[in-house]
């Protein structure tokens, strides 16, 4: 009797095991019939269909604080070209031969700085960030630290200015002064210049 009971238990477990295997097979078959994402199959990704596309032009390119700062900056740097919202990857590049090149590039490809001042050759001289209250968040602080270290390593200075509704020109001038070349002093003509001979002229002997 005990032998029959033991045999029944063994048969029960074998049946349960066989049923579990059959269930797994069915699940794998069902998974194989599903449509896999384009990123898995290798097919070209297509954006969601929308007619018309759900986009609209923003009314303003700058925020109020950015516009106010830009107007002051434009008056202070007439000898320079101002670019706004510049991608970090357009200012620095990952050196050739760097290990994990793609990983380093990904860290700079989606980050921007608010303004960049360039010289007459459009070479970057200094980057400028306007820090509003969002920069006080710990996650944003880590992002700002990375941007600062990246630009410093690349030899491009960055100036951080607290975002405001209005800015004092003297404060901005003082913050940027160390990074902009000094203007050559204006040449004041001699009052009698029009009566003087050309430079290098010597009378005949």
List the helices and strands and how they pair.
Layout: H1 2-33, H2 38-41, H3 64-76, E1 81-87, H4 101-109, E2 112-118, E3 124-131, H5 138-154, E4 158-162, H6 169-176
Parallel strand pairs: 3-4
Antiparallel strand pairs: 1-2, 2-3
Jot down its keywords.
13% strand; 40% helix; 205 residues; alpha+beta; single chain; 6 helices
Give a structural overview.
This protein has a four-stranded mixed beta sheet with strand order 1-2-3-4. Helix 5 (138-154) links the parallel strand 3 (124-131) and strand 4. The termini are far apart. It has a domain at 64-179. With 205 residues, it is of the alpha+beta class. The longest helix has 32 residues, at 2-33. It contains six helices and four strands; from the N terminus they run H-H-H-E-H-E-E-H-E-H. It is 40% helix and 13% strand. It has helices at 2-33, 38-41, 64-76, 101-109, 138-154, 169-176; strands spanning 81-87, 112-118, 124-131, 158-162. The mean pLDDT is 80.
Task: Report a brief summary of the structure.
With 205 residues, this protein is of the alpha+beta class. The chain contains six helices and four strands; from the N terminus they run αααβαββαβα. The chain is elongated, with a radius of gyration of 34 Å.
């Amino acid at each position: 009797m005990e032998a029959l009971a033991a045999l029944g238990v063994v048969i029960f477990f074998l049946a349960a095991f066989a049923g579990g295997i059959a269930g797994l097979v069915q699940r794998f078959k069902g998974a194989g019939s599903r449509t896999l994402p384009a990123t898995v199959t290798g097919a070209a990704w297509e954006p969601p269909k929308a007619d018309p596309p759900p986009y609209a032009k923003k009314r303003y390119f700058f925020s109020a604080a950015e516009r106010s700062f830009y107007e002051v900056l434009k008056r202070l740097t007439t000898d320079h070209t101002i670019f706004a919202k510049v991608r970090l990857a357009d200012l620095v590049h990952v050196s050739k031969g760097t290990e994990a090149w793609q990983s380093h590039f990904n860290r700079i490809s989606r980050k921007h700085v608010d303004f960049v001042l360039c010289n007459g050759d459009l070479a970057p001289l200094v980057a400028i960030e306007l820090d509003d209250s969002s920069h006080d968040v710990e996650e944003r602080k880590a992002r700002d630290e990375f941007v600062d270290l990246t630009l410093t390593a690349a030899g491009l200075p960055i100036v951080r200015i607290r975002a405001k509704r209005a800015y004092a020109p003297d404060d901005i001038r003082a913050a940027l002064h160390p990074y902009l070349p000094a203007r050559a002093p204006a040449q004041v003509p001699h009052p009698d210049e029009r009566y003087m001979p050309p430079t290098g002229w010597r009378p005949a002997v």
